[in-house]
Design goal:
mainly alpha; 12 helices
Length: 293
């Protein structure tokens, strides 16, 4: 089967996410079913950006919705998370608990930060698989799938929606941190995860500083590459319940305008999401440790 190499589009395409408060009618219903099916409290930037191309997103969603409640999809998400956690641990994050304790953080606040991280540690996995399947199909590769449609044994519980520090909420310190994140990651926007962690600015400043130092290393590039490869392998094994084909999805993208524009947006998210889940796992490992130690 052809390789799907990790690819950052150049130039970075402009994205036009359709926020939840602007979604109406059928799209609002799809958004609600997306969050319910994925067990997440927020629409990821990736799916909101895809929704700017309504015919493409509707066709993609019609192929994805039947598999979200399958055991195969749940297992793929768990496997991908385990790989991201393993790769993050290999990067040897320095523990932050002693530093945060010295700064005045208490156990309750630490639990809140860990709970916020858990929302994204669990919730990002479906978005990675969605973006990967979209890219596989738009690049003309088949999605054969070789697993049965076995219903998921457990129903995912939707976690509370984290509070976000948006760019227009940010004081100069957070604004500078967001600018640093955009420059370091080579992106024109700040992902939801980082806007949630900024709820605790003194924590996130030191957490990001440690992560940034690792991002420039060859070991980090290798770790993210392995996460990307795992996402591709896992996505390809998912059951194609509706028989969605590359021709189907490309035709839908063509009805929304230039297919190359849709492909560039898909490639952007399929490139950045393996790095994002590795970063969130790194931040999670920073928070390990006994408070009393």
């Amino acid at each position: 089967m052809p390789d799907l190499v990790r690819m950052k589009p150049e130039p970075i395409p402009e994205i036009h996410p359709v926020p939840e408060y602007e979604a109406e009618g059928d799209l609002a219903d799809v958004y609600a079913r997306t969050k319910e099916g994925l067990g997440v409290p927020w629409m990821g930037v990736v799916t909101m950006a895809f929704a700017h191309y309504p015919t493409f997103y509707a066709r993609l969603w019609s192929g994805l919705e039947p598999i979200l409640s399958t055991e195969a999809f749940a297992r793929a998400c768990l496997s991908l998370r385990a790989i991201a956690e393993r790769e993050a641990e290999r990067l040897a994050p320095a523990p932050l608990v002693p530093r945060l304790k010295d700064m005045g953080y208490d156990p309750r606040e630490m639990d809140d930060i860990r709970s916020c991280n858990e929302v994204f540690s669990a919730g990002n996995m479906p978005y990675v698989l969605i973006a990967t399947l979209a890219r596989i199909l738009l690049e003309g590769q088949s999605w054969s799938g070789n697993q049965s449609i076995e219903p998921r044994r457990d129903v995912p519980e939707v976690m509370p929606r984290p509070a976000l520090i948006e760019a227009h909420h940010a004081d100069p310190t957070i604004a500078a941190l967001y600018a640093d994140i955009r420059e370091t990651l080579g992106l024109p926007f700040v992902n939801t995860d980082y806007r949630a962690f900024a709820r605790w600015p003194s924590y996130f400043a030191i957490g990001w500083s440690d992560l940034k130092a690792v991002i420039s290393s060859p070991a980090y590039d290798s770790a993210v590459e392995r996460v990307h490869d795992a996402a591709v392998d896992l996505a390809r094994t998912l059951p194609n319940a509706t028989g969605l084909t590359p021709e189907d999805l490309s035709a839908a993208a063509s009805r929304d305008g230039a297919p190359g524009e849709v492909l560039a947006v898909v490639r952007l998210f399929q490139w950045l999401l393996p790095g994002l889940i590795t970063n969130v796992a790194f931040l999670r490992h920073q928070l390990r440790g006994d408070w009393s130690g």
